[in-house]
Design a protein that fits this description.
By secondary structure, the chain is mainly alpha-helical. Among the domains are: 213 residues, Growth Hormone, Chain: A, CATH 1.20.1250.20; 26 residues, no CATH class. It is 69% helix and 3% strand. It has 13 helices and five strands. The strands form two sheets. Strands 3-4-5 form a three-stranded antiparallel beta sheet, with no helix packed on it. A hairpin with a 5-residue loop joins β3 and β4. α5 packs antiparallel against α9. The longest helix is centred in the first third of the chain and has 53 residues. The protein is globular and about 105 Å long. The chain starts with a helix and ends with a strand. The C terminus is likely disordered.
């Protein structure tokens, strides 16, 4: 009996000693890690303290209205120069619109648009410049018609006997409230339907639906809805609801794309530049609409001379139905092939977490956690 128990006792002693050694090694490793963390914290605290002592205060301009980081401006001088160019272009367009004639406005619009679009490829990384150009073209291609549609919808019976005759209260208040509700619906649709779709699918879909929504304006202008359907119903279901929903669906992914593409260190400057460039596209759209109404399809709204809205349909067909379709092929040339929920690097490639192969893919293990390193697709 003692002979049979001796080997078991020896094995138990070996196992216990082995466990003790492992526990000692673990404790030593934990103490070492703790000491390293403490040391790193002390070093970081020392470095941050030295940096705080060494970094001088930023110089201010205009009695402290804004600050200038010379290091960032020196490192990103191209972006700073591009910001100044866009600001100068906006000022030039405003001055020419107020003081110049129609030909000066045409030349200024062409020159400023070409200059800011081309210079963007010099100042920004390629993928950001492409997204910037698409944002500008998408805003500029949906040509605004200042005065034409407003005058048609609110024309008095002595000017347009068979017109919609909308009141100011309905056109400016009720329709605006309904449009805001449509914008909220667009945000909800983006959150629950399009947030995991690709940028290209979302932009193409919203462009097509915006074109379809503009058909309702053409229906009212041509009076195809009368006498069966009220002008108020067609206008609300078309321009104020469908268009606002599609506008938010087009606006949200564009803002997310621009925010993901902003380079590190100049996020606020580049984001403000890209957002302002989109607003500049809308200004160009208004200018192009004014030029079309001046040269090609004029609209007369003075009852003393004689109201003439016969060209409004052509303005709608060209500005709201045909020109926005130009952006569909541009989506595949200028927008990265990525989903809205994906992370994108500065080259436009999707960044995905690396999955451990085979047996190492254990949920909750250290190997699986350490393997979550970004890889480029």
């Amino acid at each position: 009996m003692p002979n049979s128990c001796a080997p078991k006792l020896l094995e138990e002693r070996r196992d216990s000693s082995k466990r003790l050694r492992e526990d000692d090694d673990t404790a030593v490793a934990e103490m070492g890690n703790h000491s390293m963390l403490v040391l790193s914290d002390e070093v970081c605290a020392g470095v941050s303290g030295e940096e705080e002592d060494e970094v001088p205060p930023l110089p201010t301009c205009c009695c402290g209205v804004f600050e200038v980081n010379k290091e960032v401006a020196r490192r990103s001088w191209r972006i700073v120069l591009y910001c100044l160019l866009v600001a100068a272009g906006s000022v030039v367009m405003a001055i020419v619109t107020v003081l110049g004639d129609i030909w000066s406005l045409l030349y200024a619009c062409i020159a400023v648009s070409v200059a800011v679009c081309v210079f963007g490829f010099f100042a920004l990384p390629l993928v950001i410049a492409k997204a910037n150009l698409y944002t500008f073209l998408s805003m500029a291609s949906y040509i605004q018609l200042p005065g034409a549609l407003d005058s048609f919808y609110m024309a008095r019976p002595d000017c347009l006997p068979d017109g919609p005759h909308f009141s100011f209260f309905f056109y400016n208040t009720v329709a605006s409230i309904i449009g805001n509700i449509g914008g909220i619906v667009g945000i909800l649709l983006f959150r629950y339907v399009f947030s995991k779709k690709s940028y290209r699918i979302t932009f193409v879909f919203t462009t097509l639906v915006m074109v379809v929504a503009s058909i309702f304006d053409l229906i009212i202008v041509e009076r195809w809805n009368r006498p069966r359907v009220s002008d108020h119903v067609v206008y609300v279901l078309g321009d104020q609801v469908v268009y606002q929903v599609c506008y938010m669906l087009h606006f949200m992914p564009g803002i997310i794309l621009l925010s993901r593409l902003c380079p590190r260190g100049t996020e606020s400057m580049v984001y403000a530049l890209l957002a302002g460039f989109a607003n500049f596209g809308q200004a160009v759209s208004n200018t192009v609409g004014s030029l079309l109404m001046e040269f090609k399809w004029p609209v007369e709204t003075d009852p003393a001379v004689g109201c003439d809205f016969s060209n409004v349909k052509w303005l709608l067909i060209v500005g709201h139905l045909l020109c926005p379709l130009v952006c569909i092929p541009l989506v595949f040339l200028l927008i990265p092939a990525a989903r809205i929920c994906d992370n994108i690097d500065v080259d436009g490639r999707v960044v995905r977490p690396q999955e451990p192969p085979g047996d190492c893919k254990v949920e909750g293990s250290r190997e699986s956690l350490s393997a979550q390193e970004p890889v480029l697709k």
